Amino acid sequence: MKIIVIDGQGGNIGRQMVKSIRERFPDVYIRAIGTNSIATGNMLKGGADEAATGENALIVACKAADIIVGPIGIIVPDALLGEVSPAMAKAVGESAAKKVLIPMNKCDVLIPGVEDKSTGELLNDALKMISAIMD
Hints:
The chain has helices at residues 12-24, 37-45, 55-64, 79-82, 86-94, 119-134, and strands spanning 2-7, 29-34, 50-53, 67-71, 98-102. Helix content is 45%, strand content 19%. By secondary structure, it is an alpha/beta fold. It has one domain (2-134): Rossmann fold, CATH 3.40.50. The protein contains 6 helices and 5 strands, in the order E-H-E-H-E-H-E-H-H-E-H.
């Protein structure tokens, strides 16, 4: 099972998600894809098996993923302050992988019905979804 964690900006969401997945599933393969090198580096520090940065790395990774995890902005062109290109959003959206999207009400993407939860609570919810897919 290949899990791809995608994040941008500082990579803190991705780092926390990689760390949580690694603790829960120590043997699963985790590839981190950052929209910039800082995000990539932080996800590596979280315990990813390998990592890459940028548009083409994301497009290639999405083709081989079983599960894609990241903030909801990864499916929105120009999200994360412009770090998500239209090609990146398309690659995530068109991937056959299960997608676990963390509903961050940021980057002009507001999701009605999403409870106002802390980042930690949202990440715990995402980990529960990943666990359900893995089991």
